[in-house]
Amino acid sequence: MTPQITLYTTKSSPFGHYVEIALREARADYSVYEVDLVNKPPWYTDKVNPAGKVPAISYGGSPAPADAPSPSSFKLAESLVILDFIIDIFPESNLLPIDPVARASTRFLLNLFSTTLRTACMSIAAFRGSPEEVLDAIDKLQVHMPAPGSGRFVTGDTFTSVDAVAAAYLLRFDRCLERDIGSFPEGEGVKAYHVLRTSERFTRYRAYLATLAKRESVKASFPEVSEKVLAQLGHFWVGNRAFA
């Protein structure tokens, strides 16, 4: 029997989202606790993650409520570290290849995607960056997105941790730019969305995004709560527009 897993996250977080996608890909039995980052409960920093950030997980230990986790459970924070942990405890998930060379190559791409997309995300969410930064980030990564006839995902026909990270960011970019949600000047997001959706420059991106959006692990962890997610993102991201 697999030890209990509780994921502490918030639906607006791409970091927590790709961890949840990985858990679904692994067919893990887990529960989710939604952390209110505006009114963070004191027990969260005391008993789960002293840094107060999401995501975090508790693993194993004696049965206990999510808001009073067992002291004997293993607590882990930092999304990419959690992702590695999931890969280790669920090797059958195929989130990383077994072959050492392919494994290293996938890890390289994971670092590239996560770093590039995180930088663009933080820029438009909190630092009044231009949506052009999102376009440039996607364009930079397109060479690694599947070309026609090369497979459905970044490394071929197998969904890996790279695709989990890509899905969490790219779906948010798509929906937020369409609705002009961001710390950028009003109207700039819609312009960028139009470019992404119509320009020949982003043909490969659009095909990849459509494939990711159809993946069951992605659909189950995002679209049905997308309006809630967007409301949360709007609260945080558009609020920063006042300083633009």
TrEMBL record:
CDD domains (UniProt xref): GST_C_family, GST_N_family
Record-level GO cellular component terms: cytoplasm
Family annotation (Pfam families): GST_C_2, GST_N_3
GST N-terminal domain ranges (all copies): 3-94
Superkingdom as given in the UniProt entry: Eukaryota
SUPFAM superfamilies per the UniProt record, alphabetical: GST C-terminal domain-like, Thioredoxin-like
The protein's name: GST N-terminal domain-containing protein
Organism, as annotated: Pleurotus ostreatus (Oyster mushroom)
